[in-house]
Amino acid sequence: MAFNEFTSRAVHLYDEFLKKGDPRVDGWFLMDSPLPQAVFLISYIYFVTSLGPRLMENRKAFTLRPILIVYNFSSVALSLYMCYEFVMSGWGTGYSFQCDLVDYSHSPQAMRVRYTPRNQGTVMDLKRFTCIVAPAVPYQGTSTVPLS
Fold it and tell me: Which of 20, 44, 106, 118 has the highest local Cβ count within 10 Å?
Protein backbone atom coordinates (compact mmCIF):
# COMPACT_ATOMS: atom_id res chain seq x y z
CA MET A 1 0.00 0.00 0.00
CA ALA A 2 2.82 2.42 0.81
CA PHE A 3 4.39 1.87 -2.61
CA ASN A 4 1.11 2.72 -4.39
CA GLU A 5 0.78 5.88 -2.33
CA PHE A 6 4.39 6.82 -3.12
CA THR A 7 3.96 6.29 -6.88
CA SER A 8 0.64 8.16 -7.04
CA ARG A 9 2.20 11.07 -5.14
CA ALA A 10 5.21 11.07 -7.49
CA VAL A 11 2.93 11.10 -10.55
CA HIS A 12 0.89 13.93 -9.02
CA LEU A 13 4.05 15.99 -8.33
CA TYR A 14 5.31 15.32 -11.86
CA ASP A 15 2.01 16.48 -13.38
CA GLU A 16 2.00 19.62 -11.22
CA PHE A 17 5.61 20.31 -12.21
CA LEU A 18 4.75 20.09 -15.93
CA LYS A 19 1.63 22.24 -15.55
CA LYS A 20 3.75 25.14 -14.30
CA GLY A 21 5.93 25.06 -17.43
CA ASP A 22 5.94 27.55 -20.28
CA PRO A 23 2.81 26.93 -22.40
CA ARG A 24 4.50 28.42 -25.49
CA VAL A 25 6.51 25.21 -25.97
CA ASP A 26 3.53 22.85 -25.92
CA GLY A 27 3.69 20.68 -29.03
CA TRP A 28 7.35 21.40 -29.79
CA PHE A 29 9.47 18.43 -30.85
CA LEU A 30 10.90 16.61 -27.77
CA MET A 31 9.33 19.15 -25.40
CA ASP A 32 6.10 17.42 -24.38
CA SER A 33 7.87 15.05 -22.02
CA PRO A 34 11.39 14.46 -20.72
CA LEU A 35 11.11 10.76 -21.67
CA PRO A 36 12.25 10.99 -25.35
CA GLN A 37 15.29 13.03 -24.36
CA ALA A 38 16.13 10.59 -21.59
CA VAL A 39 15.95 7.69 -24.06
CA PHE A 40 18.25 9.51 -26.51
CA LEU A 41 20.73 10.39 -23.76
CA ILE A 42 20.81 6.89 -22.27
CA SER A 43 21.28 5.41 -25.76
CA TYR A 44 24.14 7.84 -26.42
CA ILE A 45 25.84 6.99 -23.12
CA TYR A 46 25.50 3.27 -23.83
CA PHE A 47 26.94 3.66 -27.33
CA VAL A 48 29.97 5.79 -26.42
CA THR A 49 30.89 3.89 -23.27
CA SER A 50 30.05 0.28 -24.15
CA LEU A 51 28.77 -0.67 -27.59
CA GLY A 52 30.98 1.63 -29.68
CA PRO A 53 34.29 0.55 -28.10
CA ARG A 54 33.31 -3.13 -28.41
CA LEU A 55 32.43 -2.73 -32.10
CA MET A 56 35.74 -1.01 -32.83
CA GLU A 57 38.17 -3.04 -30.68
CA ASN A 58 39.28 -5.36 -33.52
CA ARG A 59 39.01 -2.87 -36.37
CA LYS A 60 41.44 -0.45 -37.91
CA ALA A 61 40.84 3.19 -36.97
CA PHE A 62 38.93 5.28 -39.49
CA THR A 63 40.62 8.17 -41.29
CA LEU A 64 38.44 11.09 -40.31
CA ARG A 65 40.74 14.05 -40.94
CA PRO A 66 38.73 15.59 -43.86
CA ILE A 67 35.46 15.09 -42.01
CA LEU A 68 36.87 16.62 -38.82
CA ILE A 69 38.15 19.68 -40.70
CA VAL A 70 34.67 20.33 -42.09
CA TYR A 71 33.13 19.60 -38.68
CA ASN A 72 35.48 22.03 -36.90
CA PHE A 73 34.84 24.86 -39.39
CA SER A 74 31.11 24.21 -39.09
CA SER A 75 31.36 24.31 -35.30
CA VAL A 76 33.15 27.66 -35.41
CA ALA A 77 30.54 29.08 -37.81
CA LEU A 78 27.68 27.81 -35.67
CA SER A 79 29.32 29.20 -32.52
CA LEU A 80 29.62 32.63 -34.16
CA TYR A 81 25.97 32.45 -35.16
CA MET A 82 24.94 31.47 -31.62
CA CYS A 83 26.93 34.41 -30.21
CA TYR A 84 25.11 36.72 -32.62
CA GLU A 85 21.75 35.24 -31.60
CA PHE A 86 22.64 35.57 -27.91
CA VAL A 87 23.46 39.27 -28.32
CA MET A 88 20.40 39.94 -30.50
CA SER A 89 18.13 38.09 -28.06
CA GLY A 90 19.14 40.29 -25.18
CA TRP A 91 21.48 43.21 -24.87
CA GLY A 92 21.44 44.07 -28.57
CA THR A 93 17.67 44.59 -28.69
CA GLY A 94 16.57 46.28 -25.52
CA TYR A 95 17.42 44.19 -22.50
CA SER A 96 19.80 45.67 -19.97
CA PHE A 97 22.61 44.27 -17.85
CA GLN A 98 20.29 44.48 -14.84
CA CYS A 99 17.70 41.89 -13.89
CA ASP A 100 14.80 42.26 -16.33
CA LEU A 101 11.42 40.62 -16.01
CA VAL A 102 10.90 37.54 -18.15
CA ASP A 103 8.73 38.23 -21.20
CA TYR A 104 6.28 35.32 -21.53
CA SER A 105 4.48 36.77 -24.55
CA HIS A 106 4.54 35.28 -28.04
CA SER A 107 6.42 38.25 -29.53
CA PRO A 108 9.33 37.39 -31.86
CA GLN A 109 11.91 38.73 -29.40
CA ALA A 110 10.44 36.78 -26.49
CA MET A 111 10.40 33.57 -28.54
CA ARG A 112 14.11 33.70 -29.48
CA VAL A 113 15.96 30.83 -27.86
CA ARG A 114 19.16 31.46 -25.89
CA TYR A 115 21.94 28.88 -25.51
CA THR A 116 24.61 29.60 -22.98
CA PRO A 117 32.49 24.68 -24.75
CA ARG A 118 45.71 18.54 -23.41
CA ASN A 119 44.60 15.32 -22.04
CA GLN A 120 42.65 13.16 -24.51
CA GLY A 121 40.69 11.43 -21.75
CA THR A 122 39.63 14.76 -20.29
CA VAL A 123 38.55 16.03 -23.71
CA MET A 124 36.43 12.93 -24.26
CA ASP A 125 34.88 13.25 -20.80
CA LEU A 126 34.08 16.90 -21.49
CA LYS A 127 32.62 15.98 -24.90
CA ARG A 128 30.43 13.28 -23.35
CA PHE A 129 29.30 15.61 -20.58
CA THR A 130 28.49 18.36 -23.10
CA CYS A 131 26.58 15.97 -25.36
CA ILE A 132 24.57 14.73 -22.40
CA VAL A 133 23.85 18.05 -20.72
CA ALA A 134 23.38 20.26 -23.80
CA PRO A 135 20.03 18.72 -24.86
CA ALA A 136 18.74 18.61 -21.30
CA VAL A 137 19.32 22.27 -20.39
CA PRO A 138 17.02 23.83 -23.02
CA TYR A 139 14.31 21.34 -22.10
CA GLN A 140 14.54 22.34 -18.45
CA GLY A 141 14.73 26.03 -19.26
CA THR A 142 11.82 26.18 -21.66
CA SER A 143 9.50 23.44 -20.59
CA THR A 144 9.59 22.87 -16.86
CA VAL A 145 10.69 26.15 -15.28
CA PRO A 146 7.66 27.54 -13.47
CA LEU A 147 6.14 30.71 -14.87
CA SER A 148 5.59 32.27 -11.47
Answer: 44
With 0.70 as the threshold, say if the pTM is over it: no
Residue 36 confidence class, pLDDT cut points 50, 70, 90:
confident
d(CA 103, CA 24): 12
Q: What is the spatial distance between Cα 18 and Cα 13, in angstroms, rounded to a whole number?
A: 9
State how far the alpha carbon of 40 is from the alpha carbons of 33, 34, 36, 143, in Å: 13, 10, 6, 17
Between 76 and 15, the more confident residue is: 76
Are 89 and 112 within 8 A, CB to CB? yes
Domain boundaries, the chain: 2-144
